[in-house]
Amino acid sequence: MTPEEVGERLVALLTADDADAPAEGTIVAGVSGGGPAHERAVVDVPAALWWAAVEAARDPGGLGCDFFDWLSAVDELDEGFTVVAHLWSTRRKHGLLVRARLARESPVIESVVDLFPGAAWHERETHEMFGISFSRHPDLRPLLLPPGFEGNPLRKEFVLASRVAKAWPGAKEPGESEAGTAKRAPMRPPGVPDPNEWGPMKGKIPPPETPARRAPGDRPARPAAGERPVRPAVGERPARPAVGERPARPAAAGTVGAGQAEAAEAADRAGAAQTAADQAPAPDVHPDPATPPEAGTLPATATPPATATPPATATPPEAGTPPEAGTETDRGTA
Q1: Which residues face 98 on adjacent strands?
Q2: Could you tell me the residue ranges of all domains in the chain?
Q3: CB-CB contact of 18 with 12 (8 Å)
Q4: Contact 129, 83 (CB under 8 A)
Q5: d(Cα 183, Cα 173) in Å, to the nearest integer?
Q6: Prior bond to 169 cis, omega within 30?
Q7: Which of 8, 77, 138, 327 has the greatest number of C-beta atoms within 10 Å?
């Protein structure tokens, strides 16, 4: 069955032709969101037909929703509370959401524990969190809250006292400083009242200071177009100083020592001298031969050619040594 068919089937079961049938229009069927895989039939019934609607949905001859999934409530503020139960058919694989609206003053609805015993814990939690009573419930003891807890935490008017006693999150809001200057008003989470209206600091917190805005007459007038300073033309701008005319680089106090300052000045002077040397005309490397050399200057002379090395002479024999045969002495004698 489609969700539309499930809703129409439950409406038909509850509006059968009998004396106890509700008035037309009090039972409304619809479809929830979630897409094809998660959408469910939604049927809104009066609180007096809550138990009858759950029974008709469980009946095997009706919708066959034999599995009780969960039960809870929604705080609708001035419109009261909405009790919601989700049922499922394990055989036909379709779901159903049954809803009933209760008044905000002393909300009471009939318990379905006799139809689904597993609903006992769900009704106990809804009772302590929203303050909704379930008639014929065997034991509405607190399930989650400690004994003696006052109030219903899931009601929207419930005051989160812990956030009033201590700012949350943290001790300071964004923009707040130790100087106590004016800042934007902090944004309180839902359920947190103004600390100046409720809690231990009631009436003791001064309102935040709002900085005064200047009046239109207090603002300085913008200069007219003719009174604005004119930018100098390109030719009127002062020329940049040459390298040798630039002032010496001042030493930063406390960061550059005397030796470093002297080294910086020497580097500037060396740079200026190098720039002046680069700008001077180059000397003539071929002087005029008719120009006499300056006094005290030696003329460059040609390098004399290397002299021939004399031939080596024969070493005379030592005294008392007979000459060898075939030597020059033998040839001279012969």
Answers
A1: 43, 85
A2: 3-112
A3: no
A4: no
A5: 9
A6: yes
A7: 8
Q: How far is Cα 38 from Cα 259, in angstroms, rounded to an integer?
A: 83
Residue 16 contacts residue 27 (beta carbons within 8 Å): no
Span between the terminal Cα atoms of the chain, in Å: 154
Structure tokens belonging to residue 316: 């005379």
Distance in angstroms (rounded) separating the CA atoms of residues 81 and 109: 11
Both tokens of residue 116?
């689904």
Q: Is the dihedral of CA 104, 108, 109, 111 positive or negative?
A: positive
Q: Are strands 81-88 and 95-102 parallel, antiparallel or unpaired?
A: antiparallel
CB 54: neighbour CB atoms within 10 A? 24
| CA separation for the pair 141, 125 (Å, rounded) | 9
Are 107 and 80 in contact by the 8 Å Cβ rule? The answer is yes
User: How does DSSP classify residue 268?
Assistant: H
| Rounded CA separation 138/150 (Å) | 22
For the chain, 334 residues long, give each residue's pLDDT as a single digit of tens. 899 999 999 999 998 755 465 655 589 999 998 888 889 999 999 999 999 999 999 999 889 999 999 999 999 999 999 999 999 999 999 999 999 999 999 899 999 999 999 999 999 999 999 999 999 999 999 899 998 888 999 999 888 766 555 555 554 555 554 444 445 566 777 667 777 777 767 777 777 666 677 776 677 777 776 777 777 776 777 777 776 676 666 655 555 555 676 777 787 888 777 777 776 665 555 555 555 555 555 555 545 555 555 555 555 555 555 555 544 444 444 3
DSSP output for 15-49: T-SSTTPPPTTSSEEEE-SS-TTT--EEEEE-GGG
- Topology, domain 3-112: Beta Polymerase; domain 2 (3.30.460)
Question: Can you give the three-state secondary structure of 48-66, one letter per residue?
Answer: HHHHHHHHHHHCCCCCCCC
